[in-house]
Amino acid sequence: MSIHTHSPALSAGRSRMRAARRGVPAWALGAIVALYMLTVLNRELWTQVHDALAASRGTPGFWLLSVTVCCRLVGNLVLTLALVTWPRIGKPILALLILVATASAYYADAFGVHLNEEVIQSIFETQRAEALALVTFGSVGWMLAFGVLPAVLVLLVPVRFPPMWRSLGQRAAIVLGAALLMVVPSMLAGRNYVYFERNHRALYEVFNPYAALSGTFHYLQRDVFRPKRSMTPIGTDATLAPTTSGRKRVVVLVVGETARAENQSLQGYGRETNPEMKRAGAIYFSDTWSCGTATTISVPCMFSDMTRAKFDKPVAKSHWNALDVLQHAGVDVFWRDNDEGCKDVCARVPNDDLTNARVAGLCDAEGCFDDVLLTDLPERLARMRSPALLVLHLKGSHGPDYFQRYPAAFNVFGPGCDTGEVQTCTYAQAVASYDNTILYTDHILGRVVDTLKAVPDVDSAMMYLSDHGESLGEHDIYLHGADWDTAPSQQKHVPMLMWLSPGWVRDSGVRLDCMERRRTQPASQDNLFHTLLGFFDVRTTLYKPDLDLLAGCRA
Q1: What is the per-residue pLDDT for 432?
Q2: At residue 341, what are phi and psi to the nearest 5 degrees?
Q3: For residue 129, is pLDDT > 70?
Q4: Which residues contact 508 (CB under 8 A, 6 or more apart)?
Q5: Cα–Cα–Cα angle for 269, 397, 296, nearest 5°?
Q6: Mean pLDDT within 508-537
Q7: Which residue has the higher pLDDT, 224 or 308?
Q8: Positive or negative CA dihedral for 438, 441, 443, 449?
Q9: What is the DSSP code string of 94-105?
């Protein structure tokens, strides 16, 4: 008679072995996730691939080019997943990639948003309130159905990993196969594919999860892990030219948010969206273009002495900007913010963040209307010594919840779009709500001008310039942040205007007839740095008269 004993450890080990044999092979799980991403989470990618290839239809090599493009994209994804599917960490990484790809797919499908470096940078640097504005019932439902549920299934499914050496062999074979899939067809397609790749790089900005991974990597490399540079002063020779009038000089610079030129009545738009500025006789520059299509680029760029063509954000971040140079020269500078921060532009000058202010009638849990910037404007200007520059950073027309950017009294154009899911509204509704934000911004500018008019013994000027524009559904694109070179004009053509008091015109010698001619000539955010220096007659070798909007019109 034989007696068989079974230890608990032995039984547990056999149970794990049986479970392992019943598990899904690791390569199969990777293949299933890849197939899911390619078919469900990359619909916008395949739509754009189809449209991009349409131009080559009927040409020699069309079918080879089409196969090459598809092989390149499929091979890229297979290669990525093969490199992360390892024991212990493989399933969590796959689940995380599904969540990232799902979020990217939602905003690509719903808003036509491309995940380029500017958008990734905006995601990392945005404020809590701005981020929450993008969290809607539609986005949450999408994430639960197409992101969270598949991710949980990946985490729960048992996976079978072969022994180490066999696993390395399988992985090497997959990686090699994916590499061949990417390289061989493109070699056969030759220069047809080279031209296609060069002209359609934007496809990779809607390729999930490649776009998010690539954009995050480049953002971290460029802005986070890049060695910190010491601050470099520029314009240290800046001095103020002596004045003869003896009058106090004040400039109010209003930095707009997400306002596009197309919807300004001063630009010729059908709706009267700029009645206050029209009544004030503002000088409107009708051909003005932004430096970027996102605040994180445009605001640092417009205050930098670098032009858009040469702008480098890390370099700009380590150098003085226009505010620093003006302060060094002797100008009393102050920044007031109601948007998503000054992006380090105001880091070395006195500043006030009002985004979380508590002012009855102007602020709630969602933030404050831009009138909060003007609550004590006369007193603030009176306290500043001459010459003075006050910068007001508006929340302006920031979307997608345009309806929350203005008080009820400015709900003039309608019916509007009363949801943050602007893509679910008609084009007319989205435009109506957006036009109300432009009308409200005009009201803010009108209040600034009225405040300056109330002190006629002060030479005063007001300048307004938006950071970038906005897409409202044209070409099925919403919001902003597209690559500047390929972005639609709605995201780059921005409003810019000036109001000059009679005393300023008299004492500075500005000829208004000349300014009337200048306002239709090309302008851009490159002009701001030198125009600000010109406002205060700052003498420095940095100053370029040809970029000062007023230089050619001074007597």
Answers
A1: 97
A2: 95, 165
A3: no
A4: 459, 500, 550, 554
A5: 120
A6: 96
A7: 308
A8: negative
A9: HHHHHHHHHHHH
How would you write 444-459 as a 3-class SS string?
Answer: HHHHHHHHHHCCCCCE
CA-closest candidate to residue 47, choices 97, 106, 108, 107: 108
What's the token pair of residue 287? 């051909």
Peptide bond into 314 cis (omega under 30): no
H/E element, 67:
helix 62-84
Give 185 or 318, the one with higher predicted confidence: 318
Lowest-confidence region among 116-130, 305-319, 453-467, 541-555: 116-130
Return the SS3 of 413. Answer: coil
* Alpha carbon 482 to chain centroid, angstroms: 8
CB 288 within 8 A of CB 524: yes
Task: Read off the amino acid at residue 166.
Answer: R
Work out the number of other CB atoms within 10 angstroms of the CB of residue 452: 25
User: Quick check: 375 pLDDT over 50?
Assistant: yes
Among candidates 90, 548, 48, 532, which has minimal Cα distance to 327?
532
Amino acid found at 175: V
Q: Note if the bond before 387 is cis, omega within 30 degrees.
A: yes
Q: Could you tell me where the DSSP H helices lie in 338-422?
A: 377-383
pLDDT band at 14; cut points 50, 70, 90: low
Q: Which of 486, 387, 516, 415 is nearest to 114 (CA)?
A: 486
Q: What is the pLDDT of residues 173-228, one digit of tens each?
A: 888 888 888 888 888 877 777 777 777 777 888 888 888 888 888 778 777 777 77
pLDDT of residue 352: 94
φ/ψ (deg, to 5) at 399: -105, -175
Length of the chain: 555
Q: What is the DSSP letter of 387?
A: S
pLDDT at 87 over 80: yes
Q: Are 470 and 490 in contact (CB under 8 A)?
A: yes
Residue type, 189: A
Alpha carbons 1 and 3: distance in angstroms, whole number: 7
Token reading at 543: 């100053």
Instruction: Tell me how far apart the alpha carbons of residues 416 and 430 are, in angstroms, rounded to a whole number.
Output: 6
The CA-atom distances, in angstroms, between 205 and each of 106, 112, 391 are: 13, 10, 35
At 491, give phi and psi (nearest 5°).
Answer: -90, -10
Model pTM? 0.83
Interstrand relation of 523-524 and 249-256 (parallel, antiparallel or unpaired): unpaired
Peptide bond into 400 cis (omega under 30): yes
Report the C-alpha dihedral over residues 190, 193, 198, 201, rounded to 10 degrees. Answer: -150
CB 68 within 8 A of CB 132: no
Two tokens at 40?
Answer: 């469900």
More confident residue, 302 or 5: 302
pLDDT confidence bin for 2, thresholds 50/70/90: very low
